[in-house]
Design goal:
By secondary structure, the protein is mainly β. Helices cover 0% and strands 70% of the residues. A twelve-stranded antiparallel barrel has the order 1-2-3-4-5-6-7-8-9-10-11-12. It is globular and about 50 Å long. The two termini are 16 Å apart.
Length: 209
């Protein structure tokens, strides 16, 4: 449908190893909706609060989340569904990223008795990013799997190749999220996320309506 169809609030907490201890609180407030029958948009706000324990240092960064996704081809018996899109993420002076991506998605097993369903995605993302004053463009492969563990419970796993920023600590970005449908319109989220710029991962909780 055209218009906003879902709003989410997510909160993550991460040990801030890069700054000698302390932690990072990260909140996102995205909204998702339909632009046309074959496309969807997302737009939202994110905020980072970075704290360094030994000297009580604190920094804050906020910014914009935005994206547009197009369905380019429907899944058939022989071919996967194809989608492409653009996305933007910023955190005032700390990190900024613009990306264009293309991906293929396919049902690996359809829901049936004794099998609740499995869906896989693979794609490529061209990214132009700036982190801590260093700019870099790259083509990054990514994969994802969504498995229905129970009629109201899904597990979503995502993995992409390591970001390569000269002089910056990097890791392999991944996320693992459990999503529970509490009611027809209410979703609860809990999971783990590594953005690729820290050794440690963030633990997060959220709610969508």
């Amino acid at each position: 449908p055209v218009g906003v169809t879902e709003g989410t609030i997510m909160w993550f907490n991460q040990n801030n190893t890069a700054n000698g201890g302390g932690d990072v609180d990260w909140m996102t407030l995205p909204a998702v909706g339909g632009a046309r029958h074959d496309s969807e948009f997302n737009i939202g706000y994110n905020r980072l609060d970075v704290k360094q324990a030994p000297v009580g240092w604190k920094d804050e960064a906020d910014g914009l989340i935005a994206g547009l996704k197009f369905r380019l081809g429907e899944e058939s018996e022989k071919l996967p569904a194809i989608a492409g899109g653009v996305s933007y993420f910023s955190a005032s002076g700390l990190y900024e990223r613009t990306a264009v991506y293309l991906c293929a998605t396919r049902n690996l097993s359809l829901p049936q008795e004794g099998n609740l369903g499995l869906r896989g995605t693979a794609g490529l993302r061209w990214t132009d990013a700036e982190y801590a004053g260093v700019s870099k463009s790259d083509i990054i492969p990514f994969v994802g799997v969504e498995a229905r563990l129970a009629p109201k419970l899904n597990l979503i796993l995502e993995l992409e190749s390591e970001h390569k920023f000269p002089g910056a600590r990097t890791n392999t970005p991944f996320s693992a999220m459990l999503r529970y449908r509490a009611t027809e319109n209410l979703l609860l989220h809990v999971g783990e996320l590594n953005t690729g710029f820290e050794d440690s991962s963030a633990v997060g909780v959220g709610i969508s309506y």
